[in-house]
Amino acid sequence: MSKDSTEAEVMIALCARLLEDQKTAFIGFGMPQVAAILAQRIQAPQLVQVFEFGAIGPTPLTPFVRNTMGGPSNCYRSLAWTSMNQIFAQAQVGLVDYGVLGATQIDIYGNVNSTMLGEDYQRPKKRFPGSGGANEVASFCWKTIIIMMHEKRRFVPRVD
């Protein structure tokens, strides 16, 4: 790894390299968004991004707008706007090649947590913007890519 690159930047670049041209990818919040934008700019210009809230095929504008999924810059030139039900139905019948998800924790069985930290769901230590459909994405898409920071605290015996 170059001293000029952060660990997150390297993981985003590696994730982007996995995304193929002329494929469809269900894109999660955060690093998956950046990886998909990079893939479109570098080697997969005809990658069709699909967002949970219904946008299909956007060409996001850069600079990237952080902490937003459905903003106008991130959904620029979307080919279609549908609903969450329609997006998941398309994934369920096999029309979405990749699911690209961020995660907070992963356990030894491959269970992914992107929802919250802590024992009590009603009063978590911290709540995150996920999961928002991560289970459906991981279950319905042909291939699933999980991208998260590699910190010891994120690899747990059992996800919260």
List the helices and strands and how they pair.
Layout: H1 7-18, E1 24-27, H2 31-42, E2 48-50, E3 55-56, E4 80-81, H3 84-92, E5 98-102, E6 105-107, E7 112-113, E8 116-117, E9 126-127, H4 134-140, E10 143-147, E11 155-156
Parallel strand pairs: 1-2, 1-5, 5-10, 6-11
Antiparallel strand pairs: 3-4, 6-7, 8-9
How is this structure best described in words?
The chain is of the alpha/beta class and 160 residues long. Helices cover 25% and strands 20% of the residues. It has four helices and eleven strands, in the order H-E-H-E-E-E-H-E-E-E-E-E-H-E-E. The strands form four sheets. A four-stranded parallel β-sheet has the order 2-1-5-10, with helices on both faces. Strand 1, helix 2 and strand 2 form a beta-alpha-beta unit. Helix 1 crosses helix 2. The longest helix has 12 residues. The N and C termini lie far apart (31 Å).
Strand content: 15-25%
End-to-end Cα distance? 31 Å
H/I helix tally: 4
Could you give a short account of the major beta sheet? 4 strands, parallel
Which structural class matches the secondary elements? alpha/beta
Q: Quick one: overall form?
A: globular
Number of strands: 11
Low-confidence stretches: none
Query: Mind telling me the C-alpha Rg?
Result: 16 Å
From N to C, what is the helix and strand string?
HEHEEEHEEEEEHEE
Helix share bin: 25-40%
Q: Strand order across the biggest sheet?
A: 2-1-5-10
- What's the rounded overall pLDDT mean? 89
What is this entry, summarized?
The chain has 160 residues and is of the alpha/beta class. Helix content is 25%, strand content 20%.
